[in-house]
Amino acid sequence: MSADRGGQQRRRPLLPYLLIAPTVLALVLVLGYPLVDMVVLSFQDMTREQLFSGESPPWAGLDQFTRILGDGFFWRVVGRTVLFTAVTTVFTVALGLFTAQLMHRVSPWVRAVIAGVLVTVWAMPAMVAASIFRWLFDTDYGVTNWVLSKLPGVDLTHHNWFIDPWQGFTVIVAVVVWGSLPFAAITLRAALAQVPPELEESAILDGARPFQVFRHVTLPVIRPVLLMVTTLNAIWNFGVFNQIWLMRGGQPEREYYLLGVYSFIESFAVNRYSTGAAIALVTVVLLLAGSVVYLRQMLRTGELE
To answer: What is the pTM of this model?
Structure first.
């Protein structure tokens, strides 16, 4: 009897690994080879001659990394990417939490309408969203310019939002937040549904104000989900490419380069394939560092125990 029980205990830990094995295998097959090829390419010096002839590119060692890490423009792009990621993530999580709280307190039919709108926005392709925002902020026919020009003392007729990178990135941030908000709001709404109502009622009866109830009762319950939403949004926003590429008509200016755009331009527009691979590899390393921070936080909160 005890031997059977011991055998079951030894087999039971294998079950999670067997269940996740197909997913891991698919990821290795789909992402493994491109990632390895990118790493190898970043230590070579590939030109169009090797690309079209099929010859093996010469090895360059750390030359590509020395070049980009010693380039001041590269570090400006890194700083711009970090700032962009922080701003978009903060706005997405804050608006998502506000929307989740709103959905948590309204009647069921209003909640269903809001959820339907969010799902519709979530299902909208990035190209469609970018086209809508380009129309809203168009220099000649933009609705935003027309509406703001109705305010006293404001004249934005034929105003180009993308001449100034700060204004242009404001529009791009709006596009990114627009597309990320549904995931944050719906996920946080599900987390709020797990907060025991009796805990909030007890805190209110004890004289706690709404902010105190949220801080001391609601927040500890939803903290793991809030951390997950924040981290995933930061990872997604760090690698933003489509929104910038589409909003700038496929020709983004250097002032609008983020790491993803910079790597693509170096690889396929300037034809410095190995330099683009080195930039992409640095981006992957930075994302892995963010993932490590996320895992440490999850372990600290006991989510992976």
So the answer is: 0.86
